[in-house]
Amino acid sequence: MTLVQMQPRPASATPVHSTAADAMDTGGPQVCDDMTVEVALAVMVSARTGHLLVCDNDGLCTGLLTQAQLTAARDSSKYTDRIQLRDILGDRGPLTHRVTTMADAEHAMRYSQVDALPVVDEHGSAPDVLAVAR
Question: Which end of the chain is more exposed for a tag (fewer CB within 10 A), N or C?
Answer without folding.
Answer: C
